[in-house]
Design goal:
Layout: H1 3-12, H2 14-31, E1 38-39, E2 51-52, H3 55-78, H4 93-96, H5 99-129, H6 133-150, H7 162-183, H8 189-207, H9 217-238, H10 247-264, H11 280-284, H12 286-301, H13 314-320, H14 325-343, H15 351-379
Antiparallel strand pairs: 1-2
Length: 380
């Protein structure tokens, strides 16, 4: 990956997505009340006055617009329609060489955008009307099945049974959709964690040695960077004190998009000496997954439904320990970065190094758990 290609990649994905997101979220903020997208204070809410919902529309719109515009521009260039502009804006050869691969993947991305749009609309309906968890989960699994079995996208798990790899891939998509949804409980939290995770995954893909040059690492990195741009644009409006919330429309799309990027990406080949690199996405996303699993365990242990909302999330537990809301958010940012930075080493190290990286992540989560349990015992 040369510096020139990296700059083109950032300028064509992250930057336009950021600008589009800032503008779209501002528009949604203005029309949220008329659209009935308002989050009002309640028993499990941390805010004290009505806040607009629907910020996720800006994230979704930024990613969709960036990719559709990019695909149309590349198709127009290859058809010779933009040849008159090349003298003014010359495209480096190292960029042109990736155009055929981009067009090969374009329709697959369009299908993913369509599937993500279904989940965004599902979340939007839930934001406005409130849907039963059975309906939400059913649609999530249906979309996941379409991606895994309809589009043929599965996690690289080196399993001899294709059906099992497919089932794990479906569960992975649904888990990430719900983990980012559950994490969306404080200003700047879910969007910031998603931006950190997506950035680290993109850096990992762009820094891989690339034993198989046919792998679409650059294209998947572009998908992640477009999401990062949309998230950063949203955070302009969502940074504490938030002026708008992401809502289920945003968290569903964000979790789905990151899940699909991890399915498309290849972190290690079966014949390489680093097959353990397939665990990299799990490490990068350890904190959102920890929050989801810990909340589910708490709710089940108390005899409640795992789909019943409450204030027992990781961020809420940090506040109970004495942190401010902003400190809790920054703490979760640092924990996400710690796990993610360790994961960057997995494709570069042997089994011994991988064991150390995984031990660091396990110790980080264990430390968090011990501190939480001590605070809980003190408060009870």
């Amino acid at each position: 990956m040369t510096l020139g290609l990296l700059l083109v990649l950032v300028m064509s994905t992250l930057l336009p997505s950021f600008v589009i997101s800032v503008l779209l979220v501002a528009i949604v903020r203005r029309w949220a009340q008329k659209l009935g997208l308002m989050d009002r204070p309640g028993a499990r809410k941390v805010h004290t006055h009505p806040i607009p919902l629907g910020g996720g529309l800006g994230i979704w719109g930024a990613v969709v617009t960036t990719f559709l515009a990019g695909g149309i521009a590349v198709a127009a260039y290859r058809a010779g329609w933009l040849s008159s502009l090349e003298s003014l804006f010359p495209i480096p050869t190292e960029v042109k060489v990736h155009f055929p691969g981009m067009m090969y993947r374009f329709w697959q991305i369009v299908a993913l955008l369509g599937a993500g749009t279904v989940l965004m609309l599902l979340g939007l309906a839930d934001d406005k009307y409130g849907l039963k968890w059975q309906i939400r989960l059913g649609v999530e699994f249906a979309v996941a099945a379409f991606v895994v079995f309809g589009l043929g996208m599965q996690l690289t798990a080196f399993l001899p049974w294709g059906w099992l790899a497919g089932l794990i891939s479906m569960l992975w998509i649904v888990a990430l959709v719900n983990s980012f949804n559950m994490l969306d409980n404080m200003d700047g939290l879910s969007g910031g964690v998603a931006a950190i995770a997506a950035s680290l995954l993109a850096v990992m893909l762009l820094s891989l040695p690339g034993t198989d040059r046919t792998l679409p690492q650059i294209f998947v990195a572009a998908m992640l960077l477009a999401l990062v741009g949309g998230l950063l644009g949203f955070l302009v409006h969502n940074w504490p004190p938030a002026k708008i919330f992401m809502g289920d429309a945003g968290s569903y799309f964000v979790g789905f998009w990151i899940a699909c990027c991890t399915l498309l990406a290849t972190y290690a080949g079966s014949k390489t000496s680093q097959p353990h690199a397939v665990l990299a996405p799990v490490c990068v996303l350890a904190i959102p997954l920890y929050d989801m699993l810990s909340v589910i365990i708490i709710r089940l242990s108390e005899g409640r439904s795992p789909f019943e909302g409450d204030k027992r999330h990781f961020s809420h537990r940090l506040v109970e320990m004495g942190l401010t809301k902003k400190q809790a958010v920054l703490t979760i940012y640092l924990a996400t970065a710690t796990c993610g930075l360790g994961a960057l080493l997995l494709p570069q190290v042997d089994y011994y190094g991988a064991a150390i990286v995984l031990a660091i992540i396990v110790c980080t989560l264990g430390l968090i758990r011990i501190l939480e349990s001590q605070a809980w015992e003190r408060n009870n």
